[in-house]
């Protein structure tokens, strides 16, 4: 027999509350609609399901029999809905590897959004260079990494999705290095103290290759593991620092004391990439985070 589920819901709520008015309140429909629903169900079944009086409502014997079957059925449906909604409240852990600079100047907004969307997920960020992050991924210590490209440590089974393109720039305090309006050859740039990341970084590899391609041997006055420290040293006039452009853009005018040094041989652009194991399934939390970078959500 084809009976609309909504009629059984009307029956269930009247049977459990023994009140047409209370059933209508819980179902968010009118009392008249509840009454019509019960009448329609009784007509389809050919049985009277409730005794009705001005003072109370009670189940008939036939209604009692039906209620014993309808009650577990609707409660199982309700439990199924609750379980699906609970799955929406994502649990588990998201493990990400990234450098200081990438975390602070690129990832932080995504992490904030993810934490707001999925407060039940524990977020673990492991800090390392882009080279070190590949090792973390290879050893399965993280679910995914965000690193610089090119990255010589990436291997074929790692899936790479570019999420941002950026430009490396040289910046200096013009009070110490009055270079505004000048375009320097790399050879001329080498006459100034240069501040760069340490040799154990993708940025250092990239810079040395670029200078070598222009027949220059890059020699840095200072090598550090932190772009923030490079900015600090450039601000006080210790040298000309090489940093990613998105870093200065995120400081919202705090680095007005610094100016970009123009080069005749501009550094080629690089990329930030989200990387994970192609042959290992992402956790549900990692997949949700990865989805933030898809074309429709970017």
TrEMBL record:
<keyword id="KW-0804">Transcription</keyword>
<feature type="domain" description="HTH lysR-type">
    <location>
        <begin position="3"/>
        <end position="60"/>
    </location>
</feature>
<dbReference type="InterPro" id="IPR036390">
    <property type="entry name" value="WH_DNA-bd_sf"/>
</dbReference>
<protein>
    <submittedName>
        <fullName>LysR family transcriptional regulator</fullName>
    </submittedName>
</protein>
<keyword id="KW-0238">DNA-binding</keyword>
<dbReference type="GO" id="GO:0003700">
    <property type="term" value="F:DNA-binding transcription factor activity"/>
</dbReference>
<dbReference type="GO" id="GO:0000976">
    <property type="term" value="F:transcription cis-regulatory region binding"/>
</dbReference>
<dbReference type="Pfam" id="PF03466">
    <property type="entry name" value="LysR_substrate"/>
</dbReference>
<dbReference type="InterPro" id="IPR000847">
    <property type="entry name" value="LysR_HTH_N"/>
</dbReference>
<dbReference type="InterPro" id="IPR005119">
    <property type="entry name" value="LysR_subst-bd"/>
</dbReference>
<dbReference type="InterPro" id="IPR036388">
    <property type="entry name" value="WH-like_DNA-bd_sf"/>
</dbReference>
<comment type="similarity">
    <text>Belongs to the LysR transcriptional regulatory family.</text>
</comment>
<dbReference type="Pfam" id="PF00126">
    <property type="entry name" value="HTH_1"/>
</dbReference>
<keyword id="KW-0805">Transcription regulation</keyword>
């Amino acid at each position: 027999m084809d009976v609309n589920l909504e009629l059984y819901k009307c029956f269930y709520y009247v049977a459990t509350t023994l009140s047409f008015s209370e059933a209508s309140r819980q179902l968010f429909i009118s009392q008249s609609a509840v009454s019509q629903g019960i009448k329609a169900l009784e007509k389809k079944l050919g049985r009277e399901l409730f005794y009705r009086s001005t003072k109370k409502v009670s189940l008939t014997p036939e209604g009692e029999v039906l209620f014993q079957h309808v009650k577990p059925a609707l409660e199982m449906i309700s439990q199924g809905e609750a379980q699906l909604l609970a799955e929406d409240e994502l649990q588990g852990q998201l493990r990400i590897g990234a450098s200081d600079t990438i975390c602070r100047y690129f990832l932080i907004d995504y992490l904030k959004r993810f934490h707001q969307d999925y407060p039940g997920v524990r977020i673990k960020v492991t800090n390392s260079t882009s080279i070190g992050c590949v090792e973390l991924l290879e050893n399965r210590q993280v679910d995914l990494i965000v690193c610089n490209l090119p990255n010589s440590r990436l291997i074929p089974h790692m899936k790479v999705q570019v999420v941002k393109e950026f430009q490396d720039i040289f910046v200096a305090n013009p009070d110490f290095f009055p270079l505004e309006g000048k375009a320097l050859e790399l050879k001329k740039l080498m006459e100034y103290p240069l501040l760069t990341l340490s040799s154990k970084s993708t940025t250092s590899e990239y810079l040395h290759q670029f200078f070598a391609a222009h027949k220059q041997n890059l020699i840095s006055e200072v090598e550090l593991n932190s772009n923030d420290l490079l900015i600090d040293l450039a601000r006080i006039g210790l040298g000309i620092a090489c940093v990613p452009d998105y870093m200065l853009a995120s400081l919202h005018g705090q680095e007005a004391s610094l100016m970009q040094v123009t080069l005749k041989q501009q550094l080629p652009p690089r990329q930030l990439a989200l990387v994970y194991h192609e042959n290992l399934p992402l956790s549900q939390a990692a997949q949700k985070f990865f989805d933030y970078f898809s074309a429709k959500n970017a």
